[in-house]
Amino acid sequence: MNVMGIIFANDATLGALTDKRTIASLPYGGRYRLVDFHLSNMSAAGVRHVGIITRHNYQSLMNHIGSGEEWGLELEEGGLEFLTPYAMSKNDTYHGKLSAIYEAMNVLEYGPEDEYVITCDSAVISNIDLQKVLASHIESGKDVTVVTKAGIANGKKQLDLALKLDDKGGIKDIAVDYIAPADYLASMDIFVMSKKYLRSTIREFIARNLFHMDRDLILGQWQKNAITINVFEFDGKALFNESLDEYYQNSLALIDADVRHDLFEGNHSVFTRVRDRVPSYYGEDCKIQNSILADGCMLEGSVENSVLFRQVTIGKDAQVRSCVIMNDTVVGEGAYLECVILDKDVVVRPGAKLCGTPSHPLVVKRGEIV
Predict the structure, then answer these.
(1) Among 148, 150, 268, 287, which is disulfide-ready with 44 (CB 3.0 to 4.6 Å)?
(2) Rounded distance, CA 347 to CA 370, Å?
(3) pTM of the prediction?
(4) What is the pLDDT of residue 85?
(5) How many CB atoms lie within 10 A of CB 290?
């Protein structure tokens, strides 16, 4: 089956954590990046032509993905392409996903005419079998397939795209930027359509100042009865990292073995760039409870209910509780941290005390000394 993939790298912002990186390159789970899940999903489904659309702060993303070898997507024609502003034929202001694809229309010119396109957003991660999604789309014979997840809508979270089904599985209602009640399905920002349909639709929409996938293509065309939509309901874990609080909660959710298994082993393995380090060192007096630790750490204090990335140092008598600590960060002796996210290369001075709350974690920017 001829399939290509498009990954949007910049559509969500998480404050200080995405000031100097895309959401796609945001570290996750001790040694991964959010984009790893999308590249692994596509690779497992046999997608060998992937375009990554990114607008700014993409150096970290390019450094992480490199040639794409870990995912079988070596940089070559028909392999993996970085669709940056400098690589696109135009460099207009970003308006929406349809506008972004239009500026990189050359990526839709490559390959067979009967090719299908799978688009996804980096903020929502899952271990999904995209072959099943594609098979459902083809069997339905409809214009677009929207991948959805139940249990996300709760009357509190605003959803980019929410869908409500009737008793027969047909679409009863669609809403955009809607705080939906629990009987709605949340879009996982994964869409499937034919290349021919996407290409012709984008050209028509851009000519009429319509730029958005959710509002203009899905909702707008559905209201006009001008589009047929297939809804694929995903039954695995789907983690929405669309806010700082969600990212923090989803990071600590990995401490749950069921969540880890579903995300990393549910349908296939999740690959990342290989960075071998020495094993972590556990000091004689250190205490580690219910935590995830990557390699290369130096542990002399206590760590509880936390996620530590590579080469993190926890000084003697330091206490770390419910924290996310990224690469090469040093926590000094006797420091106390609770509900804190430390970005890379942070130094916490000896005896310092940093406290957030579970709903509002404290964030320390990359490279800061506190």
Answers:
(1) 268
(2) 6
(3) 0.93
(4) 67
(5) 12
Name residue, tokens 């677009």. 144
pLDDT tens per residue, range 206-246: 999 999 999 999 999 999 999 999 999 999 999 999 999 99
Q: What are phi and psi of 6, to 5 degrees?
A: -130, 125
Residue 276 C-alpha from the chain's centroid = 24
| Contact residues for 93 (Cβ-Cβ < 8 A; gap 6+) | none
What are the structure tokens assigned to 3, written together? 């399939």
Which residue is associated with the tokens 């970005």? 343
Q: Using CA atoms, how far apart are residues 17 and 8, in angstroms rounded to an integer?
A: 17
CA distance 228 to 226: 7
Stated length of the chain: 370
Residue of 265, 245, 249, 269 lying closest to 257 (CA atoms): 265
Q: Give the residue among 274, 296, 298 at the shortest CA–CA distance from 286.
A: 298
Q: How far apart are CA 346 and CA 96, in angstroms?
A: 34
Residue 156, token pair as written in the block: 């509190």
Question: What string of DSSP letters covers 174-218?
Answer: EEEEEE--TTSEEEEEEEEEEHHHHHHHHHHHHHTT---IIIIII
Look at the block and give the residue holding tokens 């040639």. Answer: 67
- Distances 14 to 11, 118, 152, 241, 246 between C-alpha atoms, Å: 10, 25, 19, 8, 10
Query: Among residues 212, 5, 214, 241, which one has the least CA distance to residue 94?
Result: 212
The HSE-up count of residue 55 (CA atoms within 13 Å, CB side) is: 20
